[in-house]
Amino acid sequence: xxxxxxxxxxxxxxxxxxxxxxxxxxxxxxxxxxxxxxxxxxxxxxxxxxxxxxxxxxxxxxxxxxxxxxxxxxxxxxxxxxxxxxxxxxxxxxxxxxxxxxxxxxxxxxxxxxxxxxxxxxxxxxxxxxxxxxxxxxxxxxxxxxxxxxxxxxxxxxxxxxxxxxxxxxxxxxxxxxxxxxxxxxxxxxxxxxxxxxxxxxxxxxxxxxxxxxxxxxxxxxxxxxxxxxxxxxxxxxxxxxxxxxxxxxxxxxxxxxxxxxxxxxxxxxxxxxxxxxxxxxxxxxxxxxxxxxxxxxxxxxxxxxxxxxxxxxxxxxxxxxxxxxxxxxxxxxxxxxxxxxxxxxxxxxxxxxxxxxxxxxxxxxxxxxxxxxxxxxxxxxxxxxxxxxxxxxxxxxxxxxxxxxxxxxxxxxxxxxxxxxxxxxxxxxxxxxxxxxxxxxxxxxxxxxxxxxxxxxxxxxxxxxxxxxxxxxxxxxxxxxxxxxxxxxxxxxxxxxxxxxxxxxxxxxxxxxxxxxxxxxxxxxxxxxxxxxxxxxxxxxxxxxxxxxxxxxxxxxxxxxxxxxxxxxxxxxxxxxxxxxxxxxxxxxxxxxxxxxxxxxxxxxxxxxxxxxxxxxxxxxxxxxxxxxxxxxxxxxxxxxxxxxxxxxxxxxxxxxxxxxxxxxxxxxxxxxxxxxxxxxxxxxxxxxxxxxxxxxxxxxxxxxxxxxxxxxxxxxxxxxxxxxxxxxxxxxxxxxxxxxxxxxxxxxxxxxxxxxxxxxxxxxxxxxxxxxxxxxxxxxxxxxxxxxxxxxxxxxxxxxxxxxxxxxxxxxxxxxxxxxxxxxxxxxxxxxxxxxxxxxxxxxxxxxxxxxxxxxxxxxxxxxxxxxxxxxxxxxxxxxxxxxxxxxxxxxxxxxxxxxxxxxxxxxxxxxxxxxxxxxxxxxxxxxxxxxxxxxxxx
Length: 941
Hints:
Blueprint (H helix, E strand, L loop, with lengths): L3 H24 L9 E3 L8 E2 L2 E7 L15 E4 L1 E2 L14 E10 L5 E5 L6 E6 L2 E6 L12 E3 L8 E2 L2 E9 L6 E2 L4 E3 L1 H35 L5 H18 L12 E3 H26 L6 H20 L2 H4 L3 H22 L4 H23 L11 H28 L1 H37 L6 H31 L8 E4 H18 L3 E5 L7 E4 L1 H18 L5 E7 L4 E7 L5 H4 L18 H11 L3 E7 L3 E8 L19 H4 L6 E6 L3 H10 L5 E6 L2 H10 L4 E5 L7 H15 L5 E6 L4 H10 L3 E4 L4 H12 L60 E5 L7 H20 L3 H17 L3 H13 L5 H15 L2 E5 L3
Parallel strand pairs: 1-6, 17-19, 23-24, 23-25, 25-26, 26-27, 28-29
Antiparallel strand pairs: 2-14, 3-4, 3-6, 5-13, 6-12, 7-11, 7-14, 8-9, 8-12, 10-15, 16-18, 19-20, 20-22, 21-22
Helix pairs in contact: 2-3, 2-9, 3-4, 3-9, 4-5, 7-8, 8-9, 10-11, 10-17, 12-13, 13-15, 18-19, 22-23, 22-25, 23-24, 24-25
């Protein structure tokens, strides 16, 4: 790809070569008038321009019937008289005077004159006869009436020689005098040339208007596409501007003379509008490359210029022409550079628009350089815009083509959309509902005191597998929302450094098994907070680190480095190169090779999740440097909620319902297994629970027995949850029934679903699966009359935790691919809040639920072994192992209620890398002595 600087350098070299040719062509070197006389050859085959030195009389309207040139002063034509001093004219644009020219042509020939209007009022005479008038020139502004003719007249033919006189006055424009050239020739020759110009102008005008009509029609059909509307208005503005500075075909139906003021308004406002709409068109097509702030500045400037045109006289606002065209060139350069940049993302569209942009740039530069040279009415900008017209038209036409194709296949797309909705419904309901039942049953089984330790372990494995599958379903739904642009990003304050450390701890067993070392540079630094979602970040980092471990040779190392800044950067490096055929499509779907069980969705979903959080993910690979993945995220600048652990305090059902009065509960769900599970969650007393398979049966049951609580699924056949809730609230209002407390449940965990349930009249919304602790806590909050909490955020994998992971599974690390939310460790307290080393309690009495009694002795032995392993690692200088083992110990000890030991384990984890060895040894000794004196007693059931 050629660099922008080189492209523009080449462009200006072309301009430097082209402009002298254009200037030479515009001056039409022969023939030229000298001292008020021009000599024309016989038999003209092309109209001849009457440029050169004309006789000039300042402050006088000479008699047009002169026979001898009535002045000895001369002025160049065509040119403004602002700076000439002929016949005593002072500098400036305002004033009045006469131009005279004798045209010597062969005797017997007859020639006509093309009468072009001047700025701002003029009368043209040939051989003493008035042939054209544009307003009424006068010696003062009050007596001068500026006007424009709706067409350019051609006079009748006069016998040679010709005596041409032009009376001009200017009080309303920045450039006065004889500024627009006139031409002579046989009348039929002038008419033929005029007709060709009219045909060309009409074709250009029709192209603008037809393209505008198509674009506006496209917008009328597809209103969500705003770019065709802006583009259509741009074409209209350009049609008006092109016409008023050309043949004025749109004015033919009006009177021959138009007032100068309104005409100038139309010319300048259409010009300003075209520039603004041109910018908006490109911004609509390439919003990422054309910055919003630049567009705002340009549009604000054009708006001020438009206000100036409306409020100021033409003599003032006509000065906008020169700086306006210069500013247009600068903006065109900026947008051309933006198109070069856009070439990387959308090469076809960018190159098409860049070609149109270059056409505009060339013509604007030409107009800028030739604006006050002979022939200023020859404007190239309309032709440049005509070329540009093709470029966005091609881009928008592609959209229109796709839209028309989509309309033709509308029925097929509707069927596909229904199929997609069915697949999503299956994921949410048909898969998640029985999965919720499985998880509920495993929870109930674990409460059975008849199970021995081995059976509990098997149930725990089943429960963890269920959670893992639920996470996969939630993740697939989140990715679907990201792909379709419907994912709602709910930013939180995430400490990326702590999250990375947690990932490394969780993947430590997998790395050990592969004989790969995990190393985080700068791990002693403070928190690095980003604006993100914790579980999305965990999924990204865990996926990338796991892939890096699998791609590293045995004995190798995976290095992570975290750099604070804007943006925050996390790099993950391994020494292996990604094969070239894979590297080119590294982030595409289903790209994988040589990986057992690989789906090719890991890096694709990781970058999708990064971009959903307004970040990005890039890869660099080579044989010499290995492979580096770079994750960028936005730093935290504003106050945001900090992710909280979702684990509810573990209490027995009896404790949870203590003190509650008897309540009648109606449970409505179309899944029989889930009804069985949730019914078991509600102990009797105080609850008397009845069940219904759908809303229709539920409303029939409520006619005879009105419940205190309605626990209702959202998606059910016959009558769904929302309809049922509305029926309940309407019944209460119409018949004065006591208010029923309604808890709505759904597998959809997005804020929109929660809002819909609240709007229908539900008191609470709980995403499935619902834990016993959360359900009973919700009932207690309703009994206490507490206000409903804020609506939940849509977070991938935010599966509510049924129960904390049993501590007897701590020795069995979670698979690295899909950590269950319950396994996410609670962040350790800040260093300043860590406990001082005090004498350990003589003993500690720990209250344990009966279901854990058989497990606890083995758990304590395991923790004692862990402390010894920490001591051995410290003795060998393996600080990373000390940190890892202390982290595992802290989580297990806190789960079992050994809080003093958990606190000091967290101290070891925090200070493992930088504390003095003797300080760490004191903590280890204290832990060892403390665990030797732990006593237990069973909790009352």
